[in-house]
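This part of the workshop introduces the protein records we will be handling. A record pairs a protein's sequence with a compact description of its fold. Comparing a sequence with its tokens is the quickest way to learn the format. To make this concrete, we reproduce a full record directly below:
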Amino acid sequence: MTWEDAPSHICRGGDVRGLAFCCPPVKPCPVLNALQEVNLTPQEFVDIKIQFGRETRLGEGAGTCFGSLVWCCKPSKPCPLRDMTLRNMGMSHDEYLDLKKQLSERLVGVKKPNPDERAEALAETFNVSKIEAMNVLTECNNDLRAAVKVLHAKSLENSD
């Protein structure tokens, strides 16, 4: 299995799945917009990639630009450091892309809902104002399940 529909790099207009091929966000670049789109901070992005590197062979590659294959680009972009590292490790481009796809799914899969959207959903579900829903969310440390329980309990009290 290989990543048949791997996106272009973010800096070349690719979709957010391309975050798997991005460098650390050390300068202003399109990666910052992609991170906003998936609601990740630059530090969360770095932490997820480093953790994924610890769990997989993408953590290898001390001779690459940023010291790990998790930061390397797509095989379609020429890179002698990445390719030499892959050869030395005995890793094929297919295995590399499979791991990058898994990394992409982890990065995109952590998309956190916007608190405003959560408050709107709570307000509609429990027939309360958006402000009340936001207050309950805040009181519950943005834990949606806890907020649902609180609002459900309030709705039961009000129905008596």
Q: What stands out?
A: Residues 93-109 form the longest helix (17 residues). Residues 10-109 form one domain. The chain has a mean pLDDT of 89.
